[in-house]
Amino acid sequence: MSYKLKVIGLLELEAFQKLYKQNWPKYCPEYYCLDNFIEFLKADPQIKNLKLFTLEGEQARYDALFVVVDRYQIFVGSLNNTNGLTRQALDLLDWSFGFKCSSIPSRHIEALDNVVRSKELNLEFRDATDLFYMKAEDALMLKVEPPAGFIFKSLSEADAPLINEEWPNHHLGSLYFIQRQIRMCVNAGLYTEETQELVAWCIRLQGGYLGALQVKDCHKRRGFGSLVTREISHRLATQGHDVMALVGPSNKPSAGMFSKLGFRIIDQCVWLRTKPTIGEFTWPDGE
């Protein structure tokens, strides 16, 4: 059988998203991934370098199969991980420039690995993470006041260069990514009240996860990472969102913090980046 990718838009994404409410929270990664991209499209219908696909045919629609290509990142979801359609969809993408396969749920990892092997793609990294999860009603209980001399505020795009520089995962093209996430998603920053210095922060990634959680070196070991995690979690919960975060198994301090706050592990996800096959590609500024 010959398979073809089909471009989809806002209405299809909204229809797919509703299907991912079943067996909650099993499919919450797919649900919140679509939630973010739906909001992106509503805010900016002409957003650059964002492509949304499914496969042609009734089965893919029934499975709510989607592949999101967001600049150099891909996100994938399906209610069915046994019929081979997820692999077919991934196989039809153009992998020439390399992809960062982001927060891929465990049920889709076999399909992704098979595509990597069949195309003989070389990897820059392949990292497993644990999915920490908290229900919105529990996250509402995380509200906390900042310590004396500090205030919570939403981040501004002017904060993006600092956040990008301090982010251990920063890379070519990540500054624009952080600017966009600050502009379009829930976030939280802890600032000194007197000088307005940003000392700790957390943003929300496209997949719906908490990300880029960081504390300036000179302010570490004061519990500020936990404070901004509580603040952004509460902000998400007030919008009715459950809260998710991905933590590498070797990152014991972060895993301990999320566990102490009441998060529980419900799944594993993989981050994987393939190397370009036709030379490096540099993303234009502002895209």
Report the top-level CATH class of the largest domain.
Answer: Alpha Beta
Structural class: alpha+beta
CATH architecture descriptor name of the largest domain: 3-Layer(aba) Sandwich
Indicate the radius of gyration in whole angstroms.
19 Å
Task: Please characterize this protein's 3D structure.
Pfam families: FR47 (PF08445). Residues 150-284 form the N-acetyltransferase domain. GO terms for molecular function: acyltransferase activity, transferring groups other than amino-acyl groups. InterPro entries: Acyl-CoA_N-acyltransferase, Acyl_CoA_acyltransferase, GCN5-like_dom, GNAT_dom. The chain is an alpha+beta fold and 287 residues long. The protein has two domains: 5-130 and 270-274, Aminopeptidase; 136-241, Gcn5-related N-acetyltransferase (GNAT) (Aminopeptidase, 3-Layer(aba) Sandwich), CATH 3.40.630.30. Helices cover 33% and strands 26% of the residues. The chain is built from ten helices and twelve strands. It has a twelve-stranded mixed beta sheet with strand order 1-2-3-4-5-12-6-11-10-9-8-7, sandwiched between helices. It is globular.
Short characterization:
This protein has about 290 residues and is an alpha+beta fold.
Any key phrases for this structure?
single chain; 287 residues; alpha+beta; Aminopeptidase; 2 domains; 12-stranded mixed sheet; 10 helices; 33% helix; globular; Acyl-CoA_N-acyltransferase; Acyl_CoA_acyltransferase; GNAT_dom; acyltransferase activity, transferring groups other than amino-acyl groups
